[in-house]
């Protein structure tokens, strides 16, 4: 069990937002700046099973969200609504950390080190420079590392949830591509969710409908959509202004697709009902389906493999001998059949067929780039051995259909993964002991 009541707290979240915005969701960003050098015991704003959330954690998380809202140029929601939204996100994040620990997920120092390298590189600085910036801002670097570890735990927990799903079948992809929405372009959308509890009473449904109608009317009266999402939405994207991003009509639930199908950019739907609640959707933008054209190369090669019996030097000497035979006019195809160790191409004269640039690795691609059609490379080395390649040609190929099929599979996976993660997180929340002690938001333990 962790003991957050003994934590200390840091004064600013702006640095963290700069360092981690490319990889960390808001729950993690909130957790990563939860220290204050004063070392004073802080007030508790929520009990979450075996742990607590402190006032300073909430304040620092809110400070980070406020900085993000201002950076996006959006209207600031009322403070009490922002507090409630951020606290709920911290509760969900805390529950994920607890479940990760309970299920045996552990993060090594090496994992944390690599993650920190990624953060530093994404910001164009070294790890040492990042550490200096963090410590200059008053945060203990050890605490920063600990919270990165917690974020990695929640990532692995969610990945475990996704891995437990059934694989996407070709039939599912075929059904999606056969639908009328398969080539209907993509919509950039935001949404506001008002949840309806499972087994809700007619009164609860009526209250949710009244809340959604009130939000919709406020939007019609000029309330900024992003501000409304931050203030009122109960969806996972709430603190990002409700932004869902680019989706086609097949990568969203049917009710969602039906609602936005004929909506123009800038328009907002009336509240629409789903199994989880009521949704107000804004179409931010629209784009047509794009064509995918890729370059392909045609070549043949001879490879001398490096293995337990053939050292790199011996392989080099053998490929040089083959090169001399080519220069003497011997046939490439026959030499490949006789000498190449690439079992997939040797018996067809080294023919590699048509392939995209990355198919055989960067070194092969670099060798081909320097050749004219019909020209043979100088011997070069890769991790497999020594090679000679002959460049036979280049073409542009329309891979739109293949790309669409791959995207369809990914869209089905993303949609199912999001639904599964949201379902599991709701279960965590429903099953947890949570007592909110935030003034004005107090709740009974549940």
What can you tell me about this protein's structure?
The chain is α+β, with helices and mostly antiparallel strands and 446 residues long. It folds into three domains: 4-163, Orthogonal Bundle (Triger factor/SurA peptide-binding fold); 184-288, Chitinase A, domain 3; 293-398, Chitinase A, domain 3 (Roll). Helices cover 47% and strands 17% of the residues. The chain has 15 helices and eleven strands. Strands 4-3-6-5 form a four-stranded antiparallel sheet, with helices on both faces. Strands 8-7-10-9 form a four-stranded antiparallel sheet. Strands 2-1-11 form a three-stranded antiparallel sheet. A hairpin with a 3-residue loop joins strand 5 and strand 6 (277-287). Helix 2 (26-32) packs across helix 4 (79-102), helix 4 packs across helix 7 (141-163) and helix 5 (109-122) crosses helix 7 (141-163). The longest helix has 32 residues, at 400-431. It starts with 13 loop residues before the first helix and ends in a 10-residue tail after the last strand. Residues 1-40 have low confidence and may be disordered.
List the helices and strands and how they pair.
Elements: H1 14-20, H2 26-32, E1 44-48, E2 51-54, H3 55-72, H4 79-102, H5 109-122, H6 127-136, H7 141-163, H8 170-178, E3 186-195, H9 202-220, H10 225-232, E4 243-248, H11 254-260, E5 272-273, E6 277-287, E7 293-305, H12 312-327, H13 332-339, E8 351-355, H14 362-369, E9 380-381, E10 385-398, H15 400-431, E11 434-436
Antiparallel strand pairs: 1-2, 1-11, 3-4, 3-6, 5-6, 7-8, 7-10, 9-10
